[in-house]
Write a structure and sequence with these properties.
alpha+beta, rod-shaped, four-stranded antiparallel β-sheet, Immunoglobulin-like, about 30% helix, 2 domains
Amino acid sequence: MEKKLNKKIDHKAWIVILTITALAFVNALISVRHWELNEEISLLSSSISEIITYQKEKTADEKDDSTDQDKDKDGTQSETEQKAILEIKSDGYYYSLQGDQLGIGPLPPMVDKQTNLWVFWEISSAKGVRDIKVTGQLPDNVVWTNKKTVLSGQLQFGEVGRRVVWTVAQIDSKNNLYKIGFEIGVIPAENDIGKILDLLTNIEYQAIDQYTGKKIQGNLNKITTDLKSDNLASDKGEVVQ
């Protein structure tokens, strides 16, 4: 009887020991896994932090590169990218730049005889502009011969107001032939002897700035019988008998 009791006690003791051991082992596994999870979370947080830092640095570098591209060589911010440009030339010629005769009639101009010459308008530089308009006034003693050459836009002459009007709606960056020419004639009177006569006055231009929507406008020098741009005719502007 006593032996059986001892066996039961020994059996229960072993069960308790095994249970404690198993619980200790499970607890150890849980602790190890908890430590591993903490390490994984720490590594993941570190990776995310590095990615965020890299993206911030990349964005900052791209912004700096963009800013550098918009700067001039001296380091100042370039304004030409957003600034409208419009330059117009207006000249009168009796001879072409190659020396060919364009005009007809006496030179210097003579009393009661008609001398014809050509006026050329040219948009030499344009950017960020539209609805360009150039106008000029013919004096009473100057005639419109209706001979013209138009490479772009529209050219009109109003008989009543005696105004020449050239309009260009849009500028195409691929087209650099924004130029027109027209012939006019002058008939000097007796009291014009020794004078340099006006041929085209009140020359004005205007356009719309596409960046701001504001109007751009200005004035050009009048054209006279003293054709300053024509090297062959520039000293022959005074009317003679």
